[in-house]
Amino acid sequence: MVGGSCLTGCSIYGRPQRQSGLRATLDSTCQPDPSTMPAKELAKITLPPYVIEPPDILLIEALRVVPKPPFRIQSFDTLRIDVANTLLDNPISGDFVIEPGGNVDLGPTYGKVNLQGKSLDEAQDAVTRHLTRVLRGPQVSLTLIQAAGLQQVAGEHAVGPDGTVNLGIYGQVYVTGMTLQEAKVAIEKQLSNYLDAPVVSVDVFAYNSKYFYVITEGGGLGDQVAKQVITGNETVLDAIADVTNGLSQASSKEVWIARPAPSGVGCDQILPVDIEAIMKGGSTATNYQLLPGDRVFIAQDPWFAFNGIIDKITAPFERIFGFTLIGASTVQSIARFGQFGFGFF
Hints:
By secondary structure, the chain is of the alpha+beta class. The chain folds into four domains: 18-49 and 210-300, Outer membrane lipoprotein wza fold like (Roll), CATH 3.10.560.10; 57-67 and 150-206, wza like domain (wza like fold); 78-146, wza like fold (2-Layer Sandwich), CATH 3.30.1950.10; 312-340. The chain has helices at residues 120-131, 180-191, 236-243, 275-281, 302-339, and strands spanning 57-64, 78-87, 90-97, 103-105, 112-114, 139-146, 154-158, 164-166, 172-174, 199-206, 211-216, 224-229, 251-259, 269-274, 295-300. The radius of gyration is 37 Å and the shape is elongated. The N and C termini lie far apart (84 Å). The model is unreliable at 1-14 and 17-35 (pLDDT under 50).
């Protein structure tokens, strides 16, 4: 990472001067740390763990969704029931859905058993007692496959303006400012209020909160600002190629990166870029790797800007002279046509 050993609140600032080799003007209270060099095209770094912010979109999937004990069976729950010592032509093995009213249908031979409101142990005993009317020594195994009242947690979840993700019936969780691992812990803690030892996976589906900017001076015609989502691999040349499709006729070869410091820590920096050496000579010395928040500034061509200033100054006079010429021409036309009998009476 780029850093500097300087006083809090200091900055490295100033427009790089072409005549002095694109050097930046440094505040006297701040000097960059020579041991920390900006990452470049052939010496890139990995960015720190991603910090979640609005409006990122997270991919959240609950891998373990088990209701907290004591669980009570309700309609539309799915149970796995396996019974040993059944009739050979009528086995009981499979998933059974609890009917409205709480009954489970074990088939025409064995009938129905009401399990509404029972725990799993109580339901197993109830099924065993019911089957002993038909079978000798039935051995019943009963487990919960899916609870109908439990909402599954899966899919994309947008981080709202309040910094939370909505988990439906399980409430909201504040995740802004957290890494993915921290968000996983926070979400599992929230789900544990409703579920038994929940396990979730969390990933970023859409990186929407980290950008770099390309600012192009317009030579008196207005500056252009383009915002681009950062992936962690972009360089200055990538930014110019992807966002502006190269330098326009209004642009000079004067380019630099304005890099804001983390809040209150370190120094804002100006990193001069030798764009001619990058494009014509294949140099990577100033083809810096971009970081979130970087501003790639492309200065205007001074002659193009000067021409724009001249146009702005002369345009009002040209308009006035144009109106004057039109008026004079109109008067002459009226006088001429009037002489030949075409005047207006």
